[in-house]
Specification:
heterodimer; A: about 150 residues; alpha/beta; Rossmann fold; 4-stranded parallel sheet; 5 helices; about 40% helix; B: about 220 residues
Chain lengths: ~150, ~220
């Protein structure tokens, strides 16, 4: 079965701690029932506002099948508007992807809290299912090279 | 500063179709400020173009560079060695920068990646508005620092017209009437008497480019 590669940009104020809960690193939560995703790459950022549009596109270019941004809830950003900026950049990246024919659904932002390990897992699982339906990213460098062979 | 917008990616892709190795050159001046052709936009567009070509099964090699000012030959010439080794140059500078490259690199294909739109001001982050049309004879002293050539839809030199309503231009609800702005500004400066002076019609033949491309020569600076 196609196991999509997902790059998850995680805000250190929310996404990173939530991802640690999802990985079962918090002992009192039973989240280990969530299937493991070996193709998940977590990229911590000090704030979602640090993510530039180019980071989202290069992740896809370098071989990711999907990109997720885990940011703090709106109006709850430590740096005031970082999550809003991330959302705008993601929307802009989506329009660029559409223009070259790629599905913009490969990009998604999720607002969550520090203790939202369950939500983190749920979003990831849904993204995996969605990407399985979409199939591999044919626009990436790796796909292209594989295609040649 | 000069304001520009990136061309649609589909249009750029169609221009690059025959080429396999290009220089994607941004510009560190005006187009960096208006986020259409700076270093960030170069990286973003390069990623987009490479992905589009990957999907077609035909790789595109892109060298990314952003000289300080592409419209100055001193900076443009720094690209000489790279331009010699590529099939074409995609320039994200304004139309001036594109022509500087075309003039200095006779055998290179230079493709514009942005549409140069106007000379304007940043009124808020991500919003730019036209402020100057380079008419060649500035009348801002008479109009309180608000330009009717660039900002009045009819370019009236003695306004307002009958289409101004509650300070808004009749052409668009989001466009201020330039002559209302001029009135408000002169009033706040205590210079309303300036409105009683007629501004004579401009000599468009000599003051604008209606008589052909313009040129400035400073003999004290020429070598």
């Amino acid at each position: 079965m196609f196991n999509p590669k997902i790059v998850a940009f995680c805000c250190e104020q929310s996404g990173v701690p939530a991802s640690e809960m999802r990985l079962g690193e918090v002992a009192d939560l039973d989240l280990k029932s969530v299937p493991n995703l070996p193709n998940l790459e977590i990229r911590p950022v000090p704030c979602a506002g640090r993510i530039e549009t180019v980071h989202l596109l290069t992740a896809l270019e370098q071989g990711a099948d999907g990109v997720l941004v885990f940011a703090c809830h709106e109006e709850n950003c430590q740096y005031r508007r970082g999550n809003i900026r991330a959302k705008s950049r993601l929307l802009y990246a989506g329009t660029m992807l559409e223009r070259i024919g790629m599905e913009k659904a490969r990009l998604e932002i999720c607002n969550l809290a520090t203790n939202d390990g369950v939500k983190f897992s749920k979003v990831l699982t849904e993204k995996v299912e969605q990407l399985r339906k979409l199939g591999p990213n044919k626009f990436s460098k790796i796909s292209s090279e594989v295609g040649k062979e | 500063m000069i304001k520009a917008e990136q061309k649609p990616v589909e249009e750029i892709i169609s221009y690059l179709e025959p080429y396999n190795k290009i220089l994607l050159s941004g510009c560190g001046a005006c187009v960096t400020v208006c986020h259409s052709g700076g270093e960030k936009e170069v990286a973003l567009l390069a990623s987009c173009l490479k992905m589009a070509r990957n999907n077609g099964g035909k790789n595109l090699e892109i060298i990314e560079m952003t000289p300080a000012r592409q419209c100055e030959p001193e900076f443009a010439l720094e690209l000489a060695e790279i331009i010699a080794g590529v099939d074409a140059v995609l320039s994200l500078s304004c139309g001036v920068g594109v022509q500087t490259l075309a003039r200095n690199f006779k055998s290179a294909v230079i493709i514009p990646g942005v549409n140069t739109v106007f000379m304007g001001e940043t009124t808020a982050h991500g919003i730019w508005e036209e402020r100057c049309q380079a008419c060649g004879n500035c009348i801002l002293e008479k109009t309180g620092g608000v330009c009717p050539i660039a900002r009045c839809a009819k370019q009236l030199l003695n306004g307002p017209c009958g289409g101004s309503s509650q300070g808004i231009c009749e052409i668009k609800r989001d466009t201020d009437c330039a002559w209302q702005l001029i009135y408000d500004r002169l009033k706040s400066l205590g210079q309303l008497t300036k409105l009683s002076e007629m501004i004579p019609a401009k000599n468009w033949g000599t003051e604008s480019r209606d008589k052909g491309p313009r040129k400035i020569v400073r003999e004290d600076l020429t070598i």
